[in-house]
Amino acid sequence: MAISFVPSFVRKYARWIESSPTGYRLTKGAFWSLSGAVISRALALAASILVARMLGKEEFGKLGIVQSTVGMFQVFAGFGLGLTATKYVAEFRDSDPAKTGRIIGLSAMVSLGTGLLMLLLLILFAPWLSAHTLAAPTLVGPLQLSALMLLLGALNGAQTGALAGFEEFRTIARINLLAGLANFPLIVTGVYLAGLRGAIVALVVSMGVNWTLNHFALRSALQRAGVPVSFSGAGRELKVLWRFSTPAVLAGVMVGPVTWICNAMLVNQPNGYGEMGAFNAANQWRGAILFLPGVVEAIILPVLSNLRGEGDRLRYRKVLLYNIWFNGALTLSFAIVISLLAPFIMASYGNGFRSNYRVLVLLSFSAVLTATIGVIGQAIASEDRMWWGMLLNLLWGCAMICASWLFVAHGAIGLAFAILISYTFHLLTVGAYTYFSLLKRGAEAQC
Predict the structure, then answer these.
(1) How many CB atoms lie within 10 A of CB 233?
(2) d(CA 423, CA 366)
(3) Within its chain, how far is the Cα of 115 from the centroid?
(4) Angle at the Cα of 403 (from 397 to 404), degrees rounded to 5?
(5) Three-state DSSP class for 20?
(6) Residue 236: which of 120, 92, 356 has the closest Cα?
(7) Which of 11, 22, 125, 164 is such that its CA lies 20 to 30 A from the CA of 149?
(8) Is 178 exposed, middle or buried (0-12, 13-18, 19+ CB in 10 A)?
(9) Mutual orientation of helices 21-55 and 169-225 as an angle, nearest 10°?
(10) pLDDT for res 20
């Protein structure tokens, strides 16, 4: 129906996409992922502006460091199970439903265990973290309260990964939309009633809503696909944890904890929490720029894994290269627009944020690098090269910490510059590995 209203030259390309099975799968997945997630992300951005104005620059900075701390622990709580479920469900859902059911059962059990473990560890270490690394003893209560997000995040990650493996992008879009609609009034009300603690309670409740929706959606998807979930036989798939999940966790360790370490460097500078507030505000828009490329990334892994399972190297290469260029061009266009509007965007958070617009400019262009790397990372995951992915992320982590140590004395803009430098280095190393180890060898094998 939509195609009938667009110009004829657009209809020609639309019909061409429909005639390509792979192109249609990618476009259909992108459409449904995008349709629900755009509204969800827009509401999240609007909520962040309101929350920043209600809390003030310093308290908003504290919320940012709490979320960063949760993100560090979340890497271990999730244990790479969302990515694991997506890759193996997509690869075996048609050829081996029993194996698919065992992997989903294993993901559910391990995510419950790791989520509970990280929840307890954050509660225990919150006093030490707040006093000795975050220079804010008053953050003990907010950190302990936020620990509930670790358990819910781990469970949500495994469920969403399985849904993506079934290519249930329409269902994921519906869940994102409903969760986003619930999150906006929850967090605004929470901040109004109880400040920083109210914001954290609202985030926990929002994740609980997300888990409930994911639970029922996954049950329906399993019934439609005829996949029986097996918990008793899940032990047969434990090798998946070593071959894929473990290096995925170690690769993630190079993101969450490294980001947290660099943020901790920032808050320990003079006026550290004020600078963290400015960085947190700008980083919200970096996340917004990466939003659409993230939708594309979520679709690429199941499609590439499925093509790999079918042995179709030619279509695999075409899908990968097309999406690298698409994500890069899409993100660059957004980065340019956001950079031009940066002074007005930062001013919307309050007068104290106005002078930090250059932070947003740097973070916007770093998002272009991040989006391109994200597509390449999905190819590495689809090829079961997660140990190499872990090593490449380790190199990025070292570069990020070193650059932050050199520039963080300049405040939020120094941290933003460190991010730009480290992701430039990361793109060069990941791109070189992918070209010589995956694309060039794959092309030679096809010949």
Answers:
(1) 15
(2) 7
(3) 18
(4) 90
(5) coil
(6) 92
(7) 164
(8) middle
(9) 120
(10) 61
Q: Which of 20-29, 90-99, 275-284 has the lowest mean pLDDT?
A: 20-29
Which residues, 6 or more positions from 102, have their beta carbon under 8 angstroms from its beta carbon? 230, 233, 234, 236, 237
Pairwise CA distance, residues 392 & 89, whole Å: 25
Question: Six-digit token pair at 142?
Answer: 């907010």
In the block, residue with structure tokens 């008793």: 232
Q: What's the average model confidence in pLDDT over 239-265?
A: 76
Q: What is the crossing angle of helices 412-434 and 386-407, to 10°?
A: 150
The reported pLDDT for the residue numbered 326 is 85
- CA-wise closest residue to 418 among 256, 259, 272: 259
Distance CA 144, CA 135 (A): 16
d(CA 83, CA 85): 5
> What single-letter amino acid sits at 387?
W
DSSP annotation string for 146-186? HTHHHHHHHHHHHHHHHHHHTT-HHHHHHHHHHHHHHHHHH
Q: pLDDT at residue 155 above 50?
A: yes
Structure tokens at 388: 């190499």
HSE-up of 19 (CA within 13 Å, CB side)? 6
Instruction: Give the chain's mean pLDDT.
Output: 82
Amino acid letter for position 365: F
Place of tokens 């190297």: 313
CA dihedral 266, 267, 272, 278 (to 10 degrees): 70
Structure tokens at 80: 């790479």
22: tokens are 């792979």
